[in-house]
Amino acid sequence: MRSLLHFLAFQLAFIALILGGTGALTANSSPTSNCRCLYGQNCWPNDAAFAILSQKLSQPLVHPTPVASPCYTSSTSSSCAAVQSRYADAIWRSDQPGAYEFQNFETYIQPNGTVDACYLNITLGYPCKQGSIPPLGVDARTPADVQAALSFATTYNLKLVVKNTGHDYQGRSAGRGEFMLWTHHMKNLVYSETFVPTGGPSNTTFKAITTGAGDQWGDVYQFSSQRGRMLVGPFALGGSLGTAGGVPQGGGISTFSPKYGLVTDNILQFTVVLANGSIVTANSIQNTDLFWALRGGGPSTFGIVLTVTYKTYPSFPVSIATFSAVLGTNDISQKVVTEAVKNIVRFTDKGWGGFMYIIKPTLFSGLWIAPNTSQSELAASLDPFGAFLYQTTGGQGGVYYNTSTSYYSWYDQTFLGTGGSQVTGNIKIASRLLSRELAQSNASGIAAKILSTSSVFTQFDMILGGAVNTIAASSVAANPSFRHSVASVVINEIWADGTNSSVIAQQIENLKKNTDLIDGISTDSGSYMNQGSLYERDFKKTFFGSNYPALRAIKQKYDPDSLLVVANGVGSDEWDKDVVCRTS
Prior knowledge:
Elements: H1 2-19, H2 47-55, H3 78-86, H4 90-94, E1 108-109, E2 115-116, E3 136-139, H5 143-155, E4 160-163, E5 179-182, E6 190-195, E7 206-212, H6 217-225, E8 229-230, H7 246-249, H8 257-260, E9 267-273, E10 279-283, H9 288-294, E11 304-311, E12 313-314, E13 318-326, H10 330-348, E14 353-359, E15 363-371, H11 375-392, E16 397-404, H12 407-414, E17 426-435, H13 436-441, H14 443-451, E18 457-462, E19 485-495, H15 501-518, H16 539-544, H17 548-558
Parallel strand pairs: 3-5, 4-5
Antiparallel strand pairs: 1-2, 6-7, 7-11, 8-12, 9-10, 9-11, 13-15, 13-16, 14-15, 14-18, 17-19, 18-19
Helix pairs in contact: 1-2, 10-11, 10-14
């Protein structure tokens, strides 16, 4: 026991060293009765308490540190070289408890503007600081580990943060001084030819795949393909996104959503650890309110998902059309984007999914993926658009075709192993769901609004419409705006490591202004929360719509003390901006 206490003391001292500096949490600070406890405050559990917790766990406590910290040692480190070689690899980053897919969520801006970070580029002259990386947590491998972590956080009133891969545009799995529940190692891939939801009739079966809290989409796609099946999941360049967290619990949009619905429309069952530690099953037969809420009501809000079971479909061939053009003038940009918007409803209603990118001032590109469609069928629909691009750009645009025996085969060849493409440095984004009605009636107006922003990069995820628009909005908790939208349009602001906090603040203001400019492409200011902004005027309306009151009531039922609360999540308006202290 004594050696364990010494080990914990050493680890906590090391974390304290990294956390040190202006505005760091100090031993003399204490929370009010309305606040959760953070590292460095008097309320933080002592070494003996952590030693007792450790005895209940299957793994040692995890002490996340910035992944670039080996590069700040006094001597040349082979560990630093290893970090440098993998730093932009999203799969590698997801395996590190102290790494996030977007590095700005590893940093922390002090009230005085000082940036606490641990940049890979040590020549920037910044010391290595802990930033927003939680200093301590549980490396959960079993349901009992999760239960122990929740009980410990409750007993000591700790601010709890839940992390799998750390892939979140709102930074909901990061938290300065918070206690981490790391679910990344809870892998549990199971295929069943005859899955029956618990409590359901035995004569109603599904070919289904069950995934664990730590599984990632790239692995799941491979697993399903090996069995001649596919399932509805995100594009996930590099395959690094998790299968049980933000994607399904935020609604989830997929290349095949126009054919089969949202990711969350295809979920059969969850197993969940509630805030009180009980393990329950949620499906269409039992705990139906929780089942509804988990399908789109937001992650880390209603419980800790241990497993999620998805229905699967037979694998099928796909045809792919890629398109590109050089946008030489504002007039050409307006014409090209208008024509592209006109196509969205027609193609998504065929069950096709697509992506489109505008990189100002001159680049335009994208693709359409058509399941169970021959290349000749796809060309018959896209050739007119290709001819338009060619003519409008003076021969600097067109459409090109490809086929594959299965989506996974194409995805594997094209995107798996491209983990670095998931890591784009420091980024804040915002989005709006493109109204089906407006895309049909006012494509030119939509194009004008999007082109009017100062955002250099604009992304269209044209993977709504079709089946998504035919499923009842009340069937799941996902934003009702999905049911009358055909695409998610995403804008962003990016900055380099070492950027001054005042410059970052200005870019955030730019993001807010640009969000206002694209707001009119949605009839209800709807947004996909997983592509959402931290700076929405009314997050309840934008991310949850009319579902919010019901979701708040369900949260009160299953988590009455709000142990689980995240930025822009259900109930978060009752807390301060850091989601640490109650305000109401």
